[in-house]
Task: structure prediction
Amino acid sequence: MTYQMNDRQELVDFESIRPAFAVTGGLMLSQVVEMTGLGGSTIQNWIKRGWIMSPVDKKYSERQVARILIIDMLRKSMKLENILRLMECVNGDVEDQSDDIIMDADLYIYIYNIVKRTEPLEKFTLDRLDEVIDEEIKDYHGTGEGYTGHVSDAAKRLHDALRIILLTYMSSELRKRAEAELEQM
Result:
């Protein structure tokens, strides 16, 4: 079996699940587990550690699900402590939305769109990644809900965080390719 670089980790199209949040008021743990393939105990452990806000009435919001998806995507190639540090650079304290420069769901949508636009990975370059990030966030106004920092600072932090997130994601994909090629030796 030949590993194709387009056999990338399947990311969730968040825009397609967004209506479910409006209709149901959130997703149940079983739905999040089904969507992500994570164990319920893993998600609950992340909540206990303060990496994700606790669900309200046993329902997970867009914000919580997006953060779960981001952590899951990055943990294959980045230490959890570094993922949390990165997320804090973007959105500060998980419990405090006033320091968020972008909502987690919107951050995940940027990630998803950039991944789709940088395919196939064989043609990936750092210049192309920066170009796509800049194009994706061109309408970003530098503020999240309640954010009181400087607009230029927020936009730069968002760009830098997206670059790190995408490089981590791509390194995970390259690692899978290397492992598949090793299997064929």
Observations:
- The mean pLDDT is 87.
- The CA atoms of residues 32 and 65 lie 7 Å apart.
- The beta strands are 27-28, 59-60.
- The longest strand covers residues 27-28.
